[in-house]
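Researcher: We're teaching a course module on how sequence relates to structure. For the next exercise, students receive a sequence and then see the predicted structure as tokens, so they can try to spot secondary structure elements on their own. Here is the exercise chain.
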Amino acid sequence: MATGTGRAAATPGGTLTLPRGADGIVTADDGARLAVTVAGPPPGEGLPPVVLAHCWTGSRAVWGPVARRLVAAGHRVVLYDQRGHGASSVGADPISIDRLGDDLATVVEQFDLHDAVLAGHSMGGMSVMACACRHPLLARERVRGLVLVATAAHGLAGGGRDRFWRLVLWRETVNRLMVHPRVGRVFVRRTFGRSPEKAHVEATRALFVATPPGVRRDCAEAMSEMDLRHPLREVETPATVVLGRKDRMIVNRLTRAIVDHAPGARLVELPHAGHMLPLERPDEVTAAIAGSSQL
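Model: And here is the predicted structure for the students to work with:
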């Protein structure tokens, strides 16, 4: 892993600034280069380490407000751009939720993390679940808690949602519209709940535009094919599931269903909040992660 100091290049704005740390690259076994930022105390010092996996069409910058709080509290924090997003490359393998879970396992192993909390938002939550399901020994020996934020383990295929993915999200027409801030902000506003900050809406728009259309398509199809319900039943690592009651991207019943399949999982529901919980409710999401680190 190559490293350097400074702020992640993928950070789009002031309120999403990452904590000061070291930037580097973790290389997956298919050649994908995953851009990483590590901040907080040195290994073995402070509170348990936390790894943060971001959402579809996002980057590690989405976790900026939460990461800063975790570092201030004394956690070592590892953030990375998922393949094809931010400053990370795609790699040779087709994108799948299993592949994203393997990437997360690689990050944990490369940094030799132990007693860690793995937290994922939306598609990042799917990466966390896939990692725990596909790498049970790693989960038992290196991970003390999972935090699954505004995500689902199944049910994202079928009906109007599939037509929306296939006909709209990776067309050049959408890109031409989304590059106009006013139009693009209208498009992404529905991912938030009550009274979002304009800077957060704009950052979400900019990150969508920055994600290549092919990556958007491949990740959307991977999410629609995913069903982690059965393997989740074998995961022993305690999980905390967080949802916003105004989430219109992943309906609440799908997020709540994770609790039915992950043994001992606890549910946290945030009134008036939407899908972008790391931006909308960083204090509550930080509290869920900190609580998981104490289990």
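Model: If you want an answer key for the exercise: The radius of gyration is 17 Å. Confidence is low (pLDDT under 50) at residues 1-13.
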